[in-house]
Amino acid sequence: MSSEEPVKTICPYCGVGCGIQVKQGEEPGDVQFMPWGDAPVNEGRICIKGGAATQVVDHEDRLTDPLIKEDGEFREATWEEAYEMIVSEMSRIRDEYNPDAMGFFGSSKTMNEENYLLQKLARRYGTNNVDNCTRMCHASTVWALRTSLGAGAMTNSMEDLEEAADVFWIQGANPGEQHPIANSQYFRQAVLEGATVIQVDPHANKTTRSFKIDETDRHMHLQLKPGTDIPLLNIVIKTILERHEEEPEKGWIDEEFIEARTEGFEHLKETLEDFDKEAAAEECGVPLEDIELAAEKYAMANNSAIFTGMGMSQHTCGVDNVQNEINLALITGNLGRPGTGVNPLRGQNNVQGTCDVGAMPNVLPGYQLVDDDEARKSVEEVWGFEIPDEPGLTNVEISHEAGKSIQGLFIMGENPVMSEPDGNQVEKRLEELEFIAVQDIFMTETAKFADVILPATTWAERGGTVTNTDRRVQRMRGVDKVHENTKHDLDILMEIGSRLFEEEKFRFEDVEDVFEELRQVCPSYHGMTYDSLGEEGIHWPCYEPGDEGDLFLYEDGFETESGLGQIEGVRHQPPAEVPDEEYPLLLTTGRLEEHYNTGTMSRRSPTLNRQQPENFVDVHPTDAEHYGIEDGDMVTLKSRRGAIEVKAQVTEDTKEGVVWTTPHFAAASANRLTNDVLDDRAKIPEYKAAAAEIAITVGDGSAAEPADD
Ligand code: SF4
Fold this sequence. Notes:
The chain has 26 helices and 28 strands. It is α/β, with parallel strands linked by helices. It folds into 3 domains: 79-135 and 349-539, 3-Layer(aba) Sandwich (Rossmann fold); 139-344, 3-Layer(aba) Sandwich (Dimethylsulfoxide Reductase, domain 2); 585-696, Barwin-like endoglucanases (Beta Barrel), CATH 2.40.40.20.
């Protein structure tokens, strides 16, 4: 494509899916940002990250040539050498061990077509060991939604929520910082027209401040202790059930909906029979009357919508956390119509699509289970080879198995040293592997462990499709390549697939050709073409050509086996690690508006780095006094897995006994401290709760003893 004219594409950061334009400037490598005034999602608005996104396209750190490690040092190599090494090592591992000795990491920063081809390559190689970063963010949400409602995605869309929702119940999510345009454009508009916000979060943040939640009686912030979401929601549900007993005419629950469209209500009631609301409120650290008032606001509104984030999903009880949100929505009939639902706010710009196209160990494109014979056969007919019928390992399990059952890793655009919990251990495990190939745009903390690195193009230099948080599939378009010797991810995968298997199943004319195959095997994308996507995109499901897609799901029934929504009572499960004498504080984590996940791109953006150049830890004033910490002091924050040095921010944004920090900054990342214990079904790690201690850093870099009380 000519790069002289601006091209319409999608912001590479969060899952809102804002449209932007990029244009090649006068100088080589100068790629400029331009607003896209009538972009379908954001109508020209943009947040600080989106506006700064082009700053990394021609960054001086870009990888510009293939690299091969020899005697512990990287040297420049030709593409031919790099491909030969990858094909020979992957073939050797398959022959010496078995196909399940390789793991494949897809990337939610790359496009649907690229992830589709990566998971096809893994399966042709003979393994289902393929996963993506949804494992770190919403694997538990996807599990609960898919099992209890039918689809692992937002039930509603930003448009219908803005128009119809009366209550926004935001639990464990921070759209004010993580989805700024959704917050400022859609949620804020609804609030201006009278909607109420109930925020449930251990940390006060820009979402709290953007709605001035603390300054009005209409909105509420329930600042619970990390890891007490189940008891809090159980108080909400029990309050609604009790009030319905007392005044059924008010319709606290929706009896008709429960009767006609759900199953499991009796189980929920039984679970809550001996549930003690007072004791639970104490456990949550929130006054009981506040939770009861929030329950009333949710139940009495015409349309209430739940928004759920990683504060809910990143727990060992992540699936049950989300199940309890589903319970609340189902008993009040808040599903299947505009302005309602259970809506995960997805993190990366294509994390929804990466899951949709099957880059997960248990599902094929369209969430068809790999162990479902019929589904597998229908995909095999198109692909022309057998797919392994057992679910593979998740990405954290692959890391855990490094040097044991796993000997090789192929990583496309992921950075597990920064993104997985217990980063110090991840580094040690990578050293155990016989072979690592990485394709990326920068020398990431993970790429340093690779044997071969392939320099890829950035989001601004190529085309394809991405799927945003409300299931809208949109096209990205690129300007000319900035560095001649880089290659598009798709071209790299086609070449490796063709060389490894000496067949044409990995040869495609172009990216659209890959999409044409993808839609044949992915039922919810089946009706889409590049032409029909146009500039507006289409919300899946879109089963047949001509379908316009759905703004909200489940109007007539749920996509479960029985067609009924699944209610299931759940009980409190404390975090795997709780404070004790040695580690008396509870560490929880969150992200900042100015940075993005592992920081690979955002830390290289001058604008974003200027705004927030370093990590910090929020400490409650009472804890600060106890430890003799003053605002701005350097402190050592420690868990059983490691220590980081960060600046203390003394603030009531966090609760007493709880410290809060972020994962974005390499040496001082929260993930040097976080716990890699997993939810036993969705295998998501418990990033949101770990025991910790804190002390002022003394001159030699060690931690001082805490002051006596
Ligand atoms: Fe990009 Fe998200 Fe900001 Fe929109 S809200 S500009 S998609 S980071």
